[in-house]
Amino acid sequence: MNQPLNPQRRPAIGMGALFAATLKRDLKLSLRRKSELVNPLIFFLMVITLFPLGVSPEPGFLAELAPGVIWVAALLATLLSMDSLFRTDFDDGSLEQLLLSPQPVMLVVCAKVLAHWMLTGLALTLVAPLISVMLFLPAEGVPGLMLSLLLGTPTLSLVGAIGAALTVGLKRGGVLISLLVLPLYIPVLIFGTGAVQAAVTGLPLDGYLALLGALLALGTVLAPLAIGAALRISVSG
Amino acid sequence: MVEKKKWLPRWFYQLASPRWCYQICGKLLPGFAVAALILLLGGIVWALLFAPADYQQGNSFRIIYLHVPSAILAQSCYMMMAVAGAIGLIWKMKVADMVAKSCAPIGATMAVLALLTGAIWGKPTWGSWWVWDARLTSMLILLFLYLGVMALNSAIESESTAAQASAVLSLVGLVNIPIIKYSVDWWNTLHQPATFTLTERPAMPAEMWVPLLMMVVGFYCFFAVSLMLRLRNEILRRERRAGWVRDLLLSK
């Protein structure tokens, strides 16, 4: 977006180059606003802090609660950051230009979701071991927690992007997006916490990870279609 | 020139026009209303007074005569909403959008009814109002999906955009339907397996399942009546600027 486009001699851009360019642009734009970047992480930490204070600080009880709490907090943190995914592009009109480009929208959408995931889902996964210490999660559970988050959070980003695309044209889409997306998050939550609990009790967790991977595969194939359609509807409306 | 053979009757194509759809629904309405009334009244009297009591659960099992039909209908209604939404998205048919919009509140009501009757039945049988069982949870998700579709529909001002957006959302939510359907087979949970299957005879005597079948068919007829009433309302509301609606309203 930095170089002015020359209408006479437009360079033909391949799909891979488009993907890389969108990814780079989104990462660059997000990294410029560092405070917005850490907001989901701070939110994640704060929600985690509420549970020992609100429920019980007793280590044994917290350890039992930890898989669910960490997953719910990660889910809410992803949701919180979702609204801004297409918002700025929609406001300044670049989203419309992206939709008008001859390349498939799915590709652009995939790059944007990947950029979003790298800055939220991946970050949450990396912070998770710290949180698990705060909640007295047994050390055996930590690899399971990180693996399940690594496989589960991209699905959260993909599904959340559908909600973000549907509500991007609305003035206040914040609450609505959670209403739309939370029911669809429930399967990921179930298998994610299942994986952590299996890891804590020493049971094999490949079944849960396989299911999370299946959800991710399904999401990667179908969600970009839905996101593209939703974006077209929102922009034309 | 060889005339192309029509493989669908003419009225089927006419359904796509709001005006004709309004009239066709008006013609079908009394028949479905009578059928619904007879089936529901007959079914409920038979079910509550004459069907034999269950040998284990006694009389408390009789609530399945409301529970099973409403649960079946809640899922069928979602399917219909999603299919109508897809038709509206692909062929840009206004009537399909209106059908999808009219389906949502009916389906949400049916989901609430199924959850409520399930809870009332669960209290004496399982000993608690609610169990976090796969079937119950997936039914609750279905209710949330209905509510999400309705919320999205009312949040967007432009009617055609609202219809398209809710169609996309209902298509995405479609993944939940097989999960509800097969949750009792996939997970070994508290909820018993399906009462009716198309391929096998029901595992209960005819005096018990015939009234249930009547109730199911009656619920479908009731759904048709309620959908057509809502659809006619919606057509009038959206087409209020059309000449034929003005004529219709002035002639009354």
Automatic annotation (TrEMBL), chain A:
It is a multi-pass membrane protein. The chain crosses the membrane at residues 37-55, 61-80, 114-139, 145-168, 175-196, 208-231. Keywords: Cell inner membrane, Cell membrane, Cytochrome c-type biogenesis, Membrane, Transmembrane, Transmembrane helix, Transport. The keyword Transmembrane helix applies. Signal peptide: none annotated. GO terms for molecular function: heme transmembrane transporter activity. It is found in: Cell inner membrane. One of its GO terms (cellular component) is plasma membrane. GO terms for biological process: cytochrome c biosynthetic process; cytochrome complex assembly. InterPro entries: Cyt_c_biogenesis_CcmB, Cyt_c_CcmB_bac. Belongs to the CcmB/CycW/HelB family. Required for the export of heme to the periplasm for the biogenesis of c-type cytochromes. This is Heme exporter protein B. The lineage of its organism: Bacteria, Pseudomonadati, Pseudomonadota, Gammaproteobacteria, Oceanospirillales.
Automatic annotation (TrEMBL), chain B:
Keywords: Cell inner membrane, Cell membrane, Cytochrome c-type biogenesis, Membrane, Transmembrane, Transmembrane helix, Transport. Its main location: membrane. The chain crosses the membrane at residues 28-51, 71-91, 103-122, 134-153, 165-184, 208-231. It is found in: Cell inner membrane; Membrane. GO terms for molecular function: heme binding; heme transmembrane transporter activity. The keyword Transport applies. Pfam families: Cytochrom_C_asm. GO terms for cellular component: plasma membrane. Residues 33-191 form the Cytochrome c assembly protein domain. It is a multi-pass membrane protein. GO terms for biological process: cytochrome complex assembly. PANTHER family: CYTOCHROME B_B6 PROTEIN-RELATED, HEME EXPORTER PROTEIN C. Required for the export of heme to the periplasm for the biogenesis of c-type cytochromes. This is Heme exporter protein C. It comes from Marinobacterium mangrovicola.
